[in-house]
Each structure stands twice: as C-alpha cells, then as structure tokens.
C-alpha cells in the first residue's frame, strides 16, 4: 500500500457528523416528484464513498415509494412514530418499496370444477352434493377471511406520522426500479434521482 493509499484509507476512517439540512444542493433532493400520485420523498446523502452509500429519506404520511431492488442488497433502518425503529435487510435483487403485486390472491391450487364453482359462485351446479357443500363453506370462509383481514388492517394501521428511513447500499450502488409508474425498468448507479 502506498503512503497516499494509506492516507486515503485513514481519511475515510475519521468520524464525522452530518446535519442533513445543511447539505449542499447536489447532496439532497426529491424523489418521485414527476411521478403520478403521492410518490414524493425527500432524500439526503449522509455518506458516500467507494465502500458505502448512506441515504436518509423523509416520507410524509400518504406518500409511497417506488418498487425497486438493489444489486448488492440494502440495509434499511426506518423510524415510524415515536422512536420505533424498524430494521430490514433486502437481499440482492429482492423487490421492495412501493406497492407489491399481491401474488397471494392466486389462492391455493384446486381442481378445475371447484375453481370454476368458486369463480362463478354457483355451488348448486356442482356435480355432487359434497362438492356443493364444500364450495358453499369455502365461499363463506372466504367472505369471513376478507372481513377479518379488513378489521385487522384497520386495527394495525398506525397513526399517520412522518417516516424517517436510513438506507445503506454497497458497491456498485446499482438500483433497478420495477414500478408500474415507469413504462419499463429503470437502472440507476449511485444516488437515486427519479
């Protein structure tokens, strides 16, 4: 290691403190301003070097992010409400953020006749009384589950509060946006400007 390389390495190890509100204009901005709907998030580059990119984001209630993934993964620390941190790890290429496509609505694989009866809600047209009874029970359970899910979502809904997020990315800092708001996927290297 050359003396200059050693000096550069030591320079990166120095501790520092950042007030995001005092960062220069090229180290802060808005994401999602040009997208339809409530998609705006204020971002700040807290730290960027060849080893790490740390971004602080401020998200007001009702605003949503974009569905995206990172080539090398993302460590995310989010504060919702009164100092309630939520720490998540999204492994490389895992889609996260924005609205997820709910693939679970596909349901459990079932025979064609039962699937058709459930779709048409016509249990009386079943080939056997047993299938008609099972179909009626499934329809009743489906309605009860939807009602229970709606009640649970209402009970679990947090009081609208701003959200502070600290995202940590690793080289090559490559983000791919896979969101319906974009006509095709968009790839960004470095700080994410959208």
Write the layout of secondary structure elements.
Layout: H1 3-13, E1 28-31, E2 41-48, E3 53-59, E4 68-70, E5 74-80, E6 85-90, H2 112-120, H3 129-156, E7 163-169, E8 174-177, E9 186-189
Antiparallel strand pairs: 1-2, 2-3, 3-7, 4-8, 5-6, 5-7, 8-9
Can you put this structure into words, describing what you see?
This protein has 194 residues and is of the alpha+beta class. It has 2 domains: 18-102 and 161-189, Jelly Rolls; 110-155. 25% of the residues lie in helices and 26% in strands. It contains 3 helices and 9 strands; from the N terminus they run αββββββααβββ. It has helices at 3-13, 112-120, 129-156, and strands at 28-31, 41-48, 53-59, 68-70, 74-80, 85-90, 163-169, 174-177, 186-189. The strands form 2 sheets. Strands 1-2-3-7-5-6 form a 6-stranded antiparallel beta sheet, with no helix packed on it. A 3-stranded antiparallel beta sheet has the order 4-8-9, with no helix packed on it. A hairpin with an 8-residue loop joins β8 and β9 (186-189). The longest helix has 28 residues, at 129-156. The chain is elongated. Residues 101-108 have low confidence and may be disordered.
């Amino acid at each position: 290691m050359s003396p200059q390389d050693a000096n550069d390495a030591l320079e990166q190890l120095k501790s520092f403190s950042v007030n995001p509100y005092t960062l220069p204009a090229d180290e802060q901005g808005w994401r999602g301003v040009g997208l339809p709907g409530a998609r705006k998030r204020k971002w700040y580059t807290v730290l960027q070097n060849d080893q790490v990119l740390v971004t602080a984001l401020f998200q007001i209630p009702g605003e949503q992010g974009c569905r995206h993934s990172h080539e090398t993964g993302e460590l995310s620390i989010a504060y919702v409400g009164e100092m309630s941190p939520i720490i998540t790890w999204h492994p490389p290429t895992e889609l996260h953020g924005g609205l997820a496509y709910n693939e679970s609505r596909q349901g459990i694989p079932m025979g064609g006749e039962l699937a058709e009866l459930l779709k048409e809600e016509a249990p009386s047209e079943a080939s056997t009384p047993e299938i008609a009874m099972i179909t009626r029970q499934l329809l009743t359970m489906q309605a009860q589950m939807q009602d229970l899910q709606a009640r649970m979502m209402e009970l679990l809904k947090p009081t609208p509060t701003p959200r502070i997020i600290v995202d940590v990315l690793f080289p090559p800092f490559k983000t791919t946006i896979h969101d319906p708001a974009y006509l095709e996927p968009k790839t960004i290297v470095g700080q994410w400007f959208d």
